[in-house]
Amino acid sequence: MAFTLPELPYAKDALAPHISAETLTFHHDKHHAAYVTKLNELVKGTALESVSLEEVIHASAKDTTKAPIFNNAAQVWNHTFYWHSMKPNGGGEPKGEIAKLIDRDLGGYEKFKEDFKNAGIGQFGSGWAWLVMEGDKLKITKTGNADLPMVHGQKPILTMDVWEHAYYLDYQNKRPDYISTFLDKLVNWDFAEANLTAAV
């Protein structure tokens, strides 16, 4: 059973002007697709060919001989999660249980926003900023390259891609501007709320 490239959950121009159709075309149809293609090549004829994406990630995470499999599998998973972490007309302050836990665990929305932005800016090189559940508390974290929370005992709630290909066509080297726009205009708090419900 080959892994397949998931469709975007919205049209390619749906996040414009904040993220352009050109960026989503390159990011989804080229970068994300390349990880899927490479993963299928790497697991072909192995025991990992017929298990779930999450099982591939866990089986390869701590095995240095399987680093290429891990990198491609994790990037397939990360990107799928990232697409859903955004929506047209998203962003702004959350409501519901996620808002209560941000107040309780992270010092309120403005503090969350500042710390999440700093996680994205402070990730040297390529990687991801995350909102996760660790135990029974929300936490902001970041990972390099393909690394992801599930292999560190954390449950992902929301992510932001800070690889340059996520924003360079629209923001050039202004990663802080992309991050501010992500928080103010794109975050899908409904997705985060659903992940929170599943995590607890």
Tally of helical segments: 8
Total domain count? 2
Shape: globular
CATH topology name of the largest domain, in short, is minor pseudopilin epsh fold
Q: Provide the gyration radius in Å.
A: 16 Å
Q: What's the pLDDT, averaged over the residues?
A: 96
Order of helices and strands: HHHHHEEEHHH
What does this structure look like?
The mean pLDDT is 96. β1 and β2 form a beta hairpin. The longest helix has 23 residues. With 200 residues, this protein is mostly helical. It has two domains: 64 residues, Orthogonal Bundle (Helix Hairpins); 104 residues, minor pseudopilin epsh fold. α1 runs antiparallel to α3 and α5 runs antiparallel to α7. It has eight helices and three strands, in the order αααααβββααα. A three-stranded antiparallel beta sheet has the order 2-1-3, with helices on both faces. 51% of the residues lie in helices and 12% in strands.
Key terms:
single chain; 200 residues; mainly alpha; Helix Hairpins; minor pseudopilin epsh fold; 8 helices
